[in-house]
Amino acid sequence: MAAHTSQSVAKAAGSETGPDAGPAARGRSRRTDSRAGGKTDNRTGGSNRPGLKRALATHWYAWAMITPVVLVLGVIIGWPLVRGVYLSLTDATERNVGRTIGANHIEATYEFIGLDNYADVLADPVFLQRLVWTVLWTVACVSVTFALGLGLATVLNREFKGRAAYRMALILPWAVPGFVSVFAWRFLFNRDNGILNKILEGGGISAVPWLDDPTWAKIAVIAVNVWLGIPFMMVALLGGMQSIPGELYEAAEMDGASPWQRFRHITLPGLRTVSMTVILLSTIWTFNMFPVIFLLTRGGPGDSTEILVTQAFREAFVTSPRDFAVSATWGVLILLLLTMFALVYRRSLRKQGEVW
After folding, report:
1. Partner residues linked to 112 by β-bridges
2. How many angstroms separate the CA atoms of 310 and 294, rounded?
3. What contacts 225, CB < 8 A, 6 or more positions away?
4. What are phi and psi of 250, to 5 degrees?
5. What count of Cα atoms within 13 Å lies in the side-chain half-sphere of residue 53?
6. Predicted pLDDT of residue 148
7. Nearest to 312 by CA among 299, 301, 297
8. pTM higher than 0.90 for the full model?
9. What tens digit of pLDDT does each residue of 204-250 get?
10. What is the spatial distance between Cα 197 and Cα 206, in angstroms, rounded to a whole number?
11. Quick one: DSSP state of residue 204?
12. pLDDT tens by residue, 68-112
């Protein structure tokens, strides 16, 4: 009797949701299913997902603040970049570009030639010469600047009398406009009346042709760029050092670690993130450091200190006829080289566990 009653109840329950169930039972089943799956539908979005209108209505103030910046960047950077890439695919020179002479306007007659400019530049041995020197110049400047900046930051990270005055003195090159600093160094490097050669002659040493000899000229431009770059490197690394917890140094000192061991195992790992960032920025800036080369040596003597960016300038503004297409080609190649470097650099950082 009990078994029969259980089977009857089970059958009745099954019949309510089965194919023979009435409309009321099926309605209850659907309502129960919709209530059970309601959270899942909301979680996956469905028709409740915020659209573009809702995002604009919610964050209109942020969009309003960003829009002018985007427009300005598009005008200042985006349009010249697109225009430069287009010119690099043409044969535009000062003879065939559009220009206005008095009341007469001459239409542009240059033509699209594809990748011919890139093939010519890459096949020219001048490109390889400029590239090799640019890489050497960048590596030398960045490595020396980083080493000196790290040393000065380590010294200034300690307490001693007059530390604030030393900080101000070391930051001074950063505060002086770059062209002023370069002209001052040009006067110091003067072969006949320069202070450096006067000091050397006072010590019985013959004058050094700082800007007249290719080797000495390269040393001179590296020295000036290092002098200009040390303040930024020092300030960035000093900030990184001051963010390292002091408890680590105290614990290491209690364990008997020497100053070198503390520097190697605490300071350097603690500066890893800051170091990677400043090295990348310094590399990009040095690779494109036009003022130091142009104002100090004009790319000379001869063309011994010409780097890629000064060569691009020379093609557009110095040589006759001015070749705008070739100059744009040099500029695009510089951009591609730096982009590839940044991508490889970022990939190497990610392999080392750095998120950047």
Report:
1. 90
2. 7
3. 137, 141, 145, 286, 289, 292
4. -65, -45
5. 1
6. 94
7. 299
8. no
9. 888 899 999 999 999 999 999 999 999 999 999 999 999 999 899 89
10. 8
11. T
12. 888 998 888 888 899 999 999 999 998 888 888 878 888 888 899
DSSP-derived 3-state class of residue 100: strand
CA 226 to chain centre: 19
Q: What is the pLDDT of residue 10?
A: 40
The tokens for 222 are: 């590296």
In order of 37, 55, 300, the CA distances from 49 in angstroms are 17, 10, 63
Chain centroid offset of residue 115 CA? 27
Query: Which residues does 263 contact at the CB level (< 8 Å), separation at least 6?
Result: 154
Query: Can you list the residues of the chain whose pLDDT is less than 50?
Result: 1-48
Q: What is the DSSP letter of 228?
A: H
CA–CA distance, 278 with 199 (Å, rounded to integer): 35
Asked whether 286 and 225 are in contact (CB, 8 A), the reply is yes
Structure tokens at 30: 């659907």
Nearest CA-CA partner of 266 in 154, 176, 186, 107? 154
In one-letter notation, the amino acid at residue 263 is F
Side chain identity at 39, as an amino acid letter?
K
Among 265, 261, 267, CA closest to 240? 267
Q: At 313, which amino acid appears?
A: F
Which structure tokens are listed for 3?
């078994």
User: Do residues 98 and 83 touch, judged by C-beta distance below 8 A?
Assistant: no
**Nearest-5° angle of CA 346, CA 349, CA 355?**
90
Going through 65-179 in order, the beta strands assigned E by DSSP cover 99-101, 104-106
- Report which DSSP code applies to 112: B
Q: Which residue has the tokens 């009653």?
A: 5
CA distance 31 to 26: 9
| Token pair of 216 as six digits | 């000495």
Q: What is the Cα–Cα distance from 15 to 12, expressed in whole angstroms?
A: 5
Q: What share of the chain is helix, strand, coil (3-state, %, to 5)?
A: 75, 0, 25
